[in-house]
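User: My advisor asked me to double-check a structure prediction for TRAP transporter small permease protein before group meeting. I don't want to rely on an old file, so could you generate it fresh from this sequence?
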Amino acid sequence: MAGKSPRSWTDSIEETLIAVILGAMTLLTFANVAARYMGSNILWALEATSFLFAWLVLLGASYAVKKRAHLGVDVAVDMLPPGPRRILGLAAAAACIVYAALLLKGGWDYWANFANLPATEGRWFPLGLEERVREKGWYEVNDIDMPAFLNPFFANWFNEGEPYEKIPRLIPYFAMPLSMTLLLLRFVQAALAIARGAQDRLIASHEAEDMIDAARPARPAAED
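Assistant: Sure, here is a fresh prediction for TRAP transporter small permease protein from the sequence you gave:
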């Protein structure tokens, strides 16, 4: 089985972003608990944490595919010779690519109108773009105030110059098309790696086995 892929500058960006999101969720939750203990409340904390959690899960899913960190039961795969194992890996990758493409279509269609962009036609596969856009750029979230420095750009582009009181939904909802695009890209990259022979399966994490092996004491050298 091929080893894990080496680190790159994109790994650092993704890992930093995921760590920042996780840290922000932790700080917000702690601050809100402390505020409630003192009889106050951070009104927007729950909504912000929910959006951050969605970004964390969706971005983390694509990153885990990239690093082959998702769990996989590969007992049967290990019993196959290299040729059939590779064919099975390509079949699994093809199924995942189709699935990710469907998720990307759904993510784009849900987000597009909030950005005043056309969704795709067709129930399962995109058959073009809708002719009449149902513009929803004026939709706002419930509790999170819009930062003043962002208002000029977003108000002019998505709300006909009218300033937002709360952040527009297009900002947090952008996690869907972005993460599904990354997920599709990761599955395509994995399929190409299998086709080139760089790896023999899609994803399979053996983190628990690796930790157990690392924890085992080294065997003493056999005495002569």
